Amino acid sequence: MRSIQFIIAGLGLAVFLLLQCVFVVDQTERAILLQLGKPVGNSDYGPGLHFKLPFVQNVIFFDSRVLEYDAPAAEILTQDKKNMVVDNFSRWKIVNPLMFYRTVRNVQGGLSRIDDIVYSQMREALGRYTLTEIVAVERSTIMDEVTTKSNVLLGEYGIYIIDVRIKRTDLPQENQMAIYGRMQAERERQAKQYRSEGREEATKITTMADRQRTVLLADALRAAESARGEGEAAATAIYAVALSQDPDFYEFVRTMDAYKKTMKDQTQFVLTPQSEFFKYLQ
Fold first, then answer.
1. 279 and 257: one domain?
2. SS3 37
């Protein structure tokens, strides 16, 4: 009976020691191994079953998924010396658990570094633009620059920033109305300038159209006069040919034509019966 108890106790102790010698890393985690509080070599354990020395070694797990950090809203000074409140968030992950542990120890320490560095880069990037430009330009370009420069500095902490995005930009409560008024005045000035430029361009187009119309009309009149002159010259040539071939008939036709034109409007003439005008009516 006592031997069975010893066997059961021995098996229990063996299971306990075995459990102290192994650890399992989940698919969403990375782990490092510590011995007496210090990292063992370049330990960086991915998902799976791993072994360790019992009692003298322990394991620290880190989340390997993409994490988010919602930074508190902070004031930033723009190029034109205007304060604006920026509320941003970052998506990040731990890419080197050993370096992360050695430099910042834990997630809270990592967030502190992210907050300092991202805010510093945000302040530097937005400080190169005026308030109006920040509202008008494509912010993704600025945020890409902030992300790239932040990664250069956060790499030594085993942290990688996936992206930084601005959730909201606002103005300090005490000077919102004054800045909004200046922005509105600037917009009105630009609109007035655009309208003036549009009217000037319209005047140029109208003047050019009038000039082209004048040229076209002059060309048309010149062509018409040329055609009329050619027609009259042709008619004169025809009359000359007719006169040379039969002068008496030509005179008769011209006289009949004169009768027709003068009698059409019932015009009264005072002429003697012996006038040459009536020789074909006698």
1. yes
2. coil
Domain count along the chain: 3
User: What's the CA dihedral at 224, 226, 229, 230 to 10 degrees?
Assistant: -110
Q: 204-235: per-residue pLDDT in tens?
A: 888 888 888 888 888 888 888 888 888 877 77
Q: What is the CATH number of the domain that holds 113?
A: 3.30.479.30
Residue ranges making up the domain that contains 45: 2-63
pTM here?
0.60
DSSP bridge pairs for 49: 24
Assess contact for 165 and 92: CB atoms under 8 A: no
One domain, residues 11 and 93: no
Q: Terminus-to-terminus CA distance in the chain, angstroms?
A: 176
Tens-digit pLDDT profile for residues 57-86:
999 999 999 999 999 999 899 998 888 889
